[in-house]
Amino acid sequence: MSVTRIDPEHRMSEAVIHNDTVYYTSVPENLDDDAEAQTANALAVIDRLLTRVGSDKSRILDATIFLVDKADFAAMNRAWDAWVAPGNAPVRCTVQAGLMNPKYKVEIKIIAALNPA
């Protein structure tokens, strides 16, 4: 069983693939925007990574969303609902968390299956 590390660095890898499963955590790139825009951006980053490794959002099995301010829950859900693949919603939980970068409003961790070969 191989482990493939995508863009590995000393502290972390961009993503890890094991047993046709990809593990990835997305953070927003638009740090001056509101929670809805940051969520939409982080989800777009997930799309790019999944395409790169041979998967897509319909193959996401599990998502954990870390949200700094629970008052942003509805805004985050608007972005999520506009993005999630209809009929293919993963298991999901949302946790209120203090994130390391004070500009982050959201961080999203996913586990996804690769597309069949």
From TrEMBL:
It holds the Pfam family Ribonuc_L-PSP. Belongs to the RutC family. This is RidA family protein. It comes from Mixta theicola. The lineage of its organism: Bacteria, Pseudomonadati, Pseudomonadota, Gammaproteobacteria, Enterobacterales.
